[in-house]
Amino acid sequence: MQAWKSASFTSVGHIVWHKSYASTARFFQYRHEQTYVLAKSRPCLPVEPLSDVQSWIYSGNRSHPTEKAVGILKPLIEAFTQPGQVVLDPSGSTLAAALAGRSYIGVELEAKCCNAKLFRLITRLSDQIIIRAQI
């Protein structure tokens, strides 16, 4: 949390996605994913607030071990940003941002995963995007 604050982000919410399956089991069966929703400023309140518990849509993890389905991220992005605004995704999963008419800054440490994301963006939005990548 200190890193968020030092970068001038504030938490506007916490989302839990409930899974119908356990992704792993140790002391517990892990049947959820979670994330904090951060903003640089206070966004306007959504007209229809989202539930903080959502159903999980499995993406198949084809391009990344923690890949998120566009269907679970797009409503979140549309609720808290306007077209043309920038979405920062430090985990690299939010291709949905680009599909929702927002600008997108993604962070990915592994070149293989970065290349897969760039390929998905290029094939889906080839006439609409400008990509600046440093690999």
Give a quick account of the main beta sheet: strands, pairing sense, barrel closure. Answer: 3 strands, mixed
Any guess at the CATH architecture? 3-Layer(aba) Sandwich
Global morphology: globular
Major beta sheet, strand line-up:
4-1-5
Contiguous helical run count: 4
Corresponding CATH superfamily: Vaccinia Virus protein VP39
Strand content: 15-25%
Structure report:
α3 links the parallel β6 (86-89) and β7. The protein has 135 residues and is α/β, with parallel strands linked by helices. The strands form three sheets. It has a three-stranded mixed sheet, with no helix packed on it. A two-stranded antiparallel ribbon has the order 2-3. A two-stranded parallel sheet has the order 6-7. 26% of the residues lie in helices and 24% in strands.
How are the SSEs ordered, and which strands pair?
Layout: H1 2-6, E1 10-18, E2 24-25, E3 29-30, E4 32-39, E5 53-55, H2 70-80, E6 86-89, H3 96-99, E7 103-106, H4 111-125
Question: Any descriptors?
Answer:
alpha/beta; two-stranded antiparallel ribbon; Rossmann fold; 135 residues; three-stranded mixed sheet; globular
